[in-house]
Amino acid sequence: MKNKGYLSFSSEVAETLGIECAIILNLFKDNKLDDISSYDGFLNSIKENLSFIDEETIKKSLNTLIKFDLIDLERNISKTDYGIKMPGKSSESRVLNTEWGPSDETIEIINMIDVSNEFLSLKLKEFKIYWIERGQKKNNWNITFLDFIRREWVKENNSNKGLPYTITEKWFPDEDVFDILNLSDITKDSALKYLREFILYWKDKGSAFTTWNSKFIDHVKRRHMMIDNMTNNEKNKKHLEPGKYTQDFQTRKNDDTWANEINLE
Question: What does 165-222 look like in DSSP terms, one character per residue?
Answer without folding.
Answer: EE--TT----HHHHHHHHTTT--HHHHHTTHHHHHHHHHHHT-EES-HHHHHHHHHHH
